[in-house]
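Our collaborator T.R. sent over the components below with a one-line note: 'Predict the complex.' Nothing else. No constraints on interfaces, no templates requested, no preferences about which chain binds where. So this is a plain run: every listed entity goes in together, and whatever single assembly comes back becomes the starting point for the next discussion.
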Amino acid sequence: MINEKLVYLALAILGLAGPFIFPDYTMQIAVLWVMVLMASTWDIMGGQMGYNSLGNITFFGVGMYISAAIQVSMFYDLGLYTASYGAIKPVFTETQYYTGFIMGVIAAGLGCVVLAVLLGLTMFGLRGPYFAIGTLGVAVAAREIAGTIEVIGAGAGIAMPFLPLPIEYRSLFYCMIFFALAALAHFVIRWMFAQQFGLAANAIRDDEDKAEAMGIPTLKYKLVGWSVAAFFMGCTGAVFGNMVGYIEPLEVAFPVATFGIFMVAMSLLGGKGTLWGPVLGAILFHIVKETTWTYLLGLQWVVLGLILIVNIVYFQQGIMGWLQTKYPEKFGISVDPSLTNQKEEA
Amino acid sequence: MLDNLQLLFVFAPVMNVQMILDGIFIGAVFALAAYGLALVWGVMNVKNLAQGDFVIMGGYLAFSLFNMGVGPIAALPIVAAVMFGFGWICYLLIIKRVIDNDMFVSLLATFGLSLFLQQVMNLIYGPEVQTIDSKFPILTMFDSFVTVPMAKVVSLLLAAGFAAIIIIFMKKSRTGQAIRATAQDARAARVLGINTDRIYAFTFSLNAAICGVAGVLVSIIWVLQPFYGIVYSLRTFAIVTAAGLGNLPAVIGVSFALGWVEQYAGIIMGAEWQIAAAVMVLIGVLVWRQIQLRRQRQVVR
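Returned assembly:
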C-alpha cells in the first residue's frame, strides 16, 4: 500500500509552508488549489457517478456574482456602484470587508446549492452525451445572460472591493483560504465516498436502470452529489472573484472553454473515479500549464488543446487508472484473472 | 422591450418580412452544419463538438482566399476540398481512436479539437471580428424598410444547390449507398465487403467539407470570430436533437425556426440576447425531450 499519511504530510507542507518557502509563487499555489478544487468536485459527478458535466463552471461564475453582489450591496447601492465602472471607489472598512466576504462566500455556496437542485431536476433525465451538452448549454447560457444584467455590470463587469491588507499579504491570504477550502472539499469527498453514498454513486455510474431497480433513490443521490460539487464550486468562485478583483462574464466568471474544460481534463489526466486522481491530475496539469505559459508564450493555448486531445485520445484511463491496472496489489485491489480480458462496457 | 414589440407589430409590420427573410438566410447555414452533424452522428455515432469550429475555419479559409483575390463563390469548391482533406486527417488522428469508445470520450476529444482550432485561428487571424465585403448589390423593398443584400440571396441559393448535390450523392452514388448501409448496420456492411473504416473516414471528411461550405456562406453574410464556433456547435446540436437523425425536412424546418427565434430575440430583447436565445432553444429542446420520454418512463440517451 502507498502510505497516504506521507502524501497528506507533503501536501500540508506545500499548503502551509509553501507560500513562505517560495514567496514568488504564492499566486501560483493559490491557483493550484483552485484547480484541485475544480477537479475533485467535478469528479463527484463526472468520475464517480458517470454524469459527465461540461457545465460545472456555471456554479463558479454564479457563486462569484452572488458574492460580489452581496459584498457590495450590504453597504452600498449595487446599481450605482456598478454604473460607475469602478471609478468611484467606496472605502470598505476592515469589518465591513470581512463580514461582507464571509457572508458572500457562504451565500455563494448556498445559492449554488439551490441552483444545483433546480438544474438537477431539469437535467437529470439526460444521460451520457446529452447531459454533457445540456450542461455545456447551461454554462454558455449563464455566460450570455450574465452579460445582459445591468445591475451586476452586464458585459463591462464589476470591480470588487480591495482586501484591506498590505499588498504582499493579499495573495498569501487567498492562498491559505483556497488551501483550507481544498482540504475541506477533499475530506468531505473522502468521507462521502466512504459512506453508502460512494457505493450508490458507483452503482449509478455502472448501470443506473439496475440501480434504480434495486431500490436506490438515484435522483436523491444525484442531487446530493451535484449539490456538494456546486457548493464548493460556488465558494471557490466567490473567493476567486475577490482574488482577481474584477469580474466580467466572458473570461473571469464563466470561462467555459478554459477552466470549464480544464477541470474535466485534469480529472481524466489523473484518473477519473478515484480519490487521488483529480488531485494528482490538477497538480500535474497546473505545472504543465504554467511551464507552457512561461516558455511557449503565445502558443500556450494551442499546446494545451493538444495536450487535452492527446490525453483523451491516447491516455484515457489516467495516471491513477494506469497505476491501478499495472500494480493492483499496491492499491489493495484484488483482480479476478478471468475478468481482466473483458472490455469495459460504455 | 415593449417599444421594440410595438415597433415590430404596430408601427412597422413590414419589418417582420425582414426578420423572416434574415431567419431563412441564416437558417440555411445552420441547416447545412446540422445536416453534417446528423450524418456523422447517425453513421458513426460520434457527436462532434468541433462542428462550429469547422464552420468558422471554412469561413476563415474563404477570408484568406478573398484577401488573395479569389471571390467567395470561386472559393467554395477550394474550401470544400481543403476541409475534406482536413477532416480526413482529423479522422485518422483523433476520431478513429475514439470511435469504439464511450460516447463521452468522443465528445470530449472533439471538444479538445475545438479548443485547438479556436486557438490556432486566434493566433493566425487575431480575435477581431472579420467580414468579407463581397460587393454584391443590396436590394431594398417597402420604402427601404426591408433590405435584401444580394449576398444573402446568393448564399441561400448556394446552400440549396450544395444541399441538393449532397442529397443526390447520398441517394444515387455507390459511396452514398455504402454510407447509408453502414449507418443501418455496420457489421452487416462489413460482412458484405464494405470497408467501413474508409466509409467512416469519408463521412467525417464529408461533414468537414459541408461545414466548410457553411463557413464560406457565413463569411459572406455574417461575421467571423475565432470564438464563435462553440455557439454554432450548440445550435447544430439543438437542431439535430429536435429534428432527429436522418430526417432532412425536419432538419431544414428546425433550422429556419432557430433562425427566426434568434432574429426575433435579437430585435425584441436586444442584440446581446441573440446567442442566449440560441442556447436557450437547445436547453428547451432537451427539457422537452425529457418530458416527452418521461411519459414512457424513459430517459434521453
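Summary for T.R.: Chain B touches chain A through 49 residues (CB under 8 Å).
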